[in-house]
Write a structure and sequence with these properties.
The chain is mainly beta. Helices cover 10% and strands 35% of the residues.
């Protein structure tokens, strides 16, 4: 994890830098199987439950 030292003023962070900061990412939803939708958070936690996979790879929770 990147440490923030000597913080002064405001700085716009790049997308790459934002990904490195713990908890800054958006949760990722994906199909874990034919009838299983999962969501993975940037801290590594994952939750899966019953759902339907759509042709575009997204999930619809049941």
């Amino acid at each position: 994890m990147k440490k923030i030292l000597n913080l002064t003023g405001v700085k716009k962070l790049s997308k790459e830098t934002q990904r490195e900061i713990k908890g800054a990412g958006r949760p990722r939803v994906y199909c874990g199987g034919r009838r299983r939708c999962c969501i993975r958070y940037s801290n590594g936690h994952e939750f899966c439950d019953y759902g339907y996979c759509r042709p575009n790879g997204s999930c619809m929770w049941a």
